[in-house]
Amino acid sequence: MIEFENVAHGYGGGPLLSEVTLSLAPGSFHFLTGPSGAGKSTFLKLCYGELAPVAGRIALFGQELDAMSRDDIARLRQRVGVVHQDCQFLDHLPIADNVALPLTVSGRDADPTELRELIAWVGLTGRLKSLPPALSGGERQRAALARAVIMSPDVLLADEPTGNLDWEMSLRLLALLVELNRMGKTIVVATHDLNLIRAAKAQVSARVLRIKDRRLLLAGAEL
Ligand SMILES: Nc1ncnc2c1ncn2[C@@H]1O[C@H](COP(=O)(O)OP(=O)(O)OP(=O)(O)O)[C@@H](O)[C@H]1O
């Protein structure tokens, strides 16, 4: 589903990631850990073609990204939902419209019933008409998750989705991610939160990738 072969990336000041080789199977659940600045967000951006590697090859859904045009990559990206670290919204649009935005910008209308069901799934029915600035951190993260899955992606990448949330809200978000995984979605979650990883491992067969010294390693069973 996502394959890296000997991938390296850096922003000009020397390599940040190197010799990254891995294959994420369809339906798998991975956490991605590592110190701040290790390259977790960078790895996620490589996964969905936002960044190109300086060496090596990346294939998404069996297609080599470096052989594709920007338009083709953009089309492939519709099969990948992303929850960004800073989850930005259009502040003048109600939450329902923000969640529907990926459909709207691709020229489609959201089915009103499906949109309401999706927003109910993340527990934001009472917030349908609220503007983003009125939402709490946990509500914003859940709205961002709804927006990330509205195109029914095969893969969901989440960058520190519980970064600013209390434990109860983190577990609520985790439950949604676990549910998506049980529906067959491939999930990658970048996080510092080892308790979150432990809680997930009690529910799904999640594996842990760790960035250490520029390399991406499959962590052992210590977590
Ligand atoms: N566009 C960019 N240009 C130059 N340097 C960048 C760019 N984006 C990230 N970096 C640098 O690359 C390094 C890795 O950043 P990245 O955001 O991938 O790390 P991270 O592991 O996700 O960090 P955190 O846990 O703090 O979110 C950092 O030193 C960062 O400053």
TrEMBL record:
SMART domains: AAA. Keywords: ATP-binding, Nucleotide-binding. Residues 2-223 form the ABC transporter domain. Pfam families: ABC_tran. One of its GO terms (molecular function) is ATP binding. This is ATP-binding cassette domain-containing protein. It comes from Albidovulum salinarum. The lineage of its organism: Bacteria, Pseudomonadati, Pseudomonadota, Alphaproteobacteria, Rhodobacterales.
